[in-house]
Amino acid sequence: MQKLGEFKLPHFFNYPPYFTLQPVRDTREKQVQLWKELIIEYCRAQKVFIIGLEEDFPLFSNRAIERSLSHEARVAFLSALVSDGRAEWTDKGHKKCLILWHRIQEWADLIVHFVKENGLEDNVMTVEEIRSGTESRGTELYGIDRSVLMRALKLLEHKGKLVIFKGTSTDDEGVKFSL
Amino acid sequence: MRRRPGIGGLQNAAAARDQYRLLGENVAKLRTDLMKEQLSTFRSQLEDFARKHKNDIRKNPAFRSQFHEMCAKVGVDPLASNKGFWAELLGIGDFYYELGVQIVDICLSTRAHNGGLISLEELCKLLGQRRKGAREAVSEDDCLRAISKLKVLGSGFEVISVGKRKLVRSVPTELNKDHNEILELAQAQGFVTVDEVQRRLSWPSGRATDALETLLDEGLAMIDDGDKDGRRRYWFPCVSSISSYAGADTS
């Protein structure tokens, strides 16, 4: 099986027609499904949060078979993820796409789990500590995109599970948990 | 018998005919009885053979295939029913049933990719992967037998020949001669172009495009517009092996 770094690529990635948007409806559905799954799994494994449509995202081309996804195809697959609620366009021009291999609610659940696991129920942490501190190393929270983290935290704040407060500058935003 | 003129003579001729007919029937009956006896001996010898070589029949696909041929010659079908002597002795009724179920499953799970047509070779390979832990190895002959049993169930499964290859069809799509010829052409590289079809088969342009469009609509073909020379390729998943897609193409 071909690999991209440590990531194992599925067989369809080496079959040229999958890089062309299929006209027949059933075939197209199958194609979109496969690409959606691949994009999510890759982003999860490599902790990719933002995909730039005009950039060199590794999944967009396969040099071994000399094929690349057209812009239209890239938009089609990412739009499908957006419809599923697993991705969001970050700009009106649809040039960048935020990938939510965990939905915001799932990230919130992970934060709650993280807090309980580490006995931080009544503690205070900075936002930066949550995403890059020693406790988060080895967990899915490590390296999480900051804007995604903020949204998850705000969701939890809305539920009364924590309070976000500002420090002297943006980098010092803190969180007090009250689970 | 001396021919006698008159009514008496006619009656004698009729009686003679009757006697000859009776004799003929007796001879036929004798022959049938003999044959039945021979067949019965043959069958019991076959049963003895099967008992003795039960393990070989189960474990060795080549041996199993020859055993089936022998049975067929004697008019015995070990798979005719799941009950009875053969099924119990060899348990191979279950074996083919199980195989049938696995084949149906593989065809269903690959249908979205290949449109319901899969090469026998690929099917056997996937079957082998699925049965990695099983005691019994599976041959293409076994697959064909299991599929013929499936056919009897009216499940729409059929084996068709395209060139040198056999393809297993699990959808009601009927392939006409034009489609078959294109599939055969596609076996070389896994794909064809309209030009190639026209050139190699000497068809007018409409005929090639029509056939290819139908195959596309049926989900048996996929388009590929990524080639450097800009010519659209029609790929046929059913003639390739899923796990062996080539890296760089050689054309």
Automatic annotation (TrEMBL), chain A:
InterPro entries: ESCRT-II_cplx_Vps25-sub (IPR008570), ESCRT-II_cplx_Vps25-sub_N (IPR014041), WH-like_DNA-bd_sf (IPR036388), WH_DNA-bd_sf (IPR036390)
UniProt entry keywords in alphabetical sequence: Protein transport, Transport
Family, similarity comment: Belongs to the VPS25 family.
One BP annotation, GO: macroautophagy
A GO-annotated cellular component: ESCRT II complex
Name of a matching Pfam family: ESCRT-II
Protein's name according to its UniProt entry: ESCRT-II complex subunit VPS25
GO molecular function: protein homodimerization activity; structural molecule activity
TrEMBL record, chain B:
Database matches in InterPro entries: ESCRT-2_cplx_Snf8 (IPR016689), Snf8/Vps36 (IPR040608), WH-like_DNA-bd_sf (IPR036388), WH_DNA-bd_sf (IPR036390)
SUPFAM superfamilies linked to this entry: Winged helix' DNA-binding domain (SSF46785)
Any one Gene Ontology cellular component term annotated for this protein: ESCRT II complex
Keyword Magnesium listed: no
Source organism superkingdom: Eukaryota
UniProt keyword list: Protein transport, Transport
Gene Ontology process terms (BP): protein transport to vacuole involved in ubiquitin-dependent protein catabolic process via the multivesicular body sorting pathway
UniProt-listed Pfam families: EAP30
Subunit and interaction comment: Component of the endosomal sorting complex required for transport II (ESCRT-II).
Protein family according to the UniProt entry: Belongs to the SNF8 family.
Function, in words: Component of the endosomal sorting complex required for transport II (ESCRT-II), which is required for multivesicular body (MVB) formation and sorting of endosomal cargo proteins into MVBs.
Name of the protein in its database record: Vacuolar protein sorting-associated protein
Organism, as annotated: Coffea arabica
